[in-house]
């Protein structure tokens, strides 16, 4: 019996450490033609947080009552699908992390889309609601080139208790973009600055620029130029026209 207890004392810390180190494993498991270089970005589990079990309820609907104009079906909503969710031990805050994906995130910044979804107005200029941070020394901001920060009051509480949402988007040249969320309860809102620091400290960008990252940047630039020149695909254009007609009919019937 004493022998078993000794083994537990010796090996349990190693087991816990391995479990903690594996918290973000799924963030790097996305099957993708463009593999993220190991020296691109590192995720570090923040102290005082535990992983929430994977479940459908982890999907965040920014505004369940709002359907964007480019929705391809009536069930479409502006969603954030986290790969990993961490909850504070005090149960007043959650962190939502995405997959670390080099193929699309360079062109993707959800701030504008999510703020417009909350306001239910795709024509709303939300630039003043997005704080852009680009300092000479970005060591306090995950060593990113640029950080974008914006606030949302969710229409429905996340996981039944968290309503106050702060979006954080990190960008670094030739590295994966990171779109994350901090969502607090009423009790946790007063500790937002503390939680912001923990979130930024949980992500570290390396400075090395790889050939893979450079190629991803070139592809992203080509996609951006194509969208500027040609607009969205025909399916999105058709959906927009259809939804404009529907919205006009709904407005007329309401009057």
Order of strands in the sheet with most strands? 2-5-6-10-9-8-7
Secondary-structure element order, as H and E? HEEEEEEHEEEEHEHH
Major sheet characteristics: 7 strands, antiparallel
Strand residue percentage: 15-25%
Q: Provide the gyration radius in Å.
A: 21 Å
Q: What is the rounded distance between the termini?
A: 79 Å
Poorly predicted ranges: 1-20
Instruction: Assign an overall shape.
Output: globular
Number of strands: 11
Helix content: 25-40%
Please state the average pLDDT score: 81
Oligomer: single chain
Helix-strand category: alpha+beta
Work out the helix count.
5
Can you walk me through this structure?
It is a single chain. It is built from 5 helices and 11 strands; from the N terminus they run H-E-E-E-E-E-E-H-E-E-E-E-H-E-H-H. A hairpin with a 4-residue loop joins strand 5 (84-88) and strand 6. The strands form 3 sheets. It has a 7-stranded antiparallel beta sheet, sandwiched between helices. It has a two-stranded antiparallel ribbon with strand order 1-11. A two-stranded antiparallel sheet has the order 3-4. It is globular, with a radius of gyration of 21 Å. It is an alpha+beta fold. It has helices spanning 2-21, 111-119, 192-201, 211-230, 234-254, and strands spanning 41-43, 49-51, 60-61, 79-80, 84-88, 93-97, 131-133, 146-158, 162-171, 178-184, 203-205. It is 31% helix and 22% strand.
């Amino acid at each position: 019996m004493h022998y078993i207890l000794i083994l537990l004392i010796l090996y349990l810390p190693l087991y816990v450490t391995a479990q903690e180190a594996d918290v973000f494993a799924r963030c790097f498991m996305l099957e993708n033609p463009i593999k993220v270089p190991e020296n691109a970005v590192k995720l570090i589990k923040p102290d005082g947080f535990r992983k929430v079990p994977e479940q459908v309820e982890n999907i965040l609907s920014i505004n369940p009552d709002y359907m964007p104009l480019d929705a391809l079906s009536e069930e479409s909503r502006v969603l954030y699908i986290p790969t990993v969710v961490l909850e504070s031990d005090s149960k007043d805050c959650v962190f939502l992390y995405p997959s670390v994906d080099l193929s699309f995130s360079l062109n993707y910044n959800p701030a504008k889309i999510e703020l417009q979804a909350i306001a239910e107005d795709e024509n709303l200029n939300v630039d003043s609601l997005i704080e852009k941070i680009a300092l000479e020394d970005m060591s306090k901001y995950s060593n990113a080139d640029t950080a974008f920060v914006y606030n949302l009051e969710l229409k429905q509480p996340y996981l039944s208790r968290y309503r106050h949402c702060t979006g954080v988007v990190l960008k670094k040249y030739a590295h994966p973009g990171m779109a994350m969320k901090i969502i607090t309860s009423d009790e946790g809102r007063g500790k937002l600055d503390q939680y912001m620091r923990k979130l930024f400290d949980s992500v570290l960008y390396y400075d090395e620029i790889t050939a893979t990252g450079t190629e991803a940047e070139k592809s992203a630039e080509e996609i951006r130029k194509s969208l500027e020149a040609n607009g969205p695909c025909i399916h999105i254009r058709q959906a927009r026209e259809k939804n404009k007609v529907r919205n006009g009919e709904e407005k007329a019937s309401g009057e």
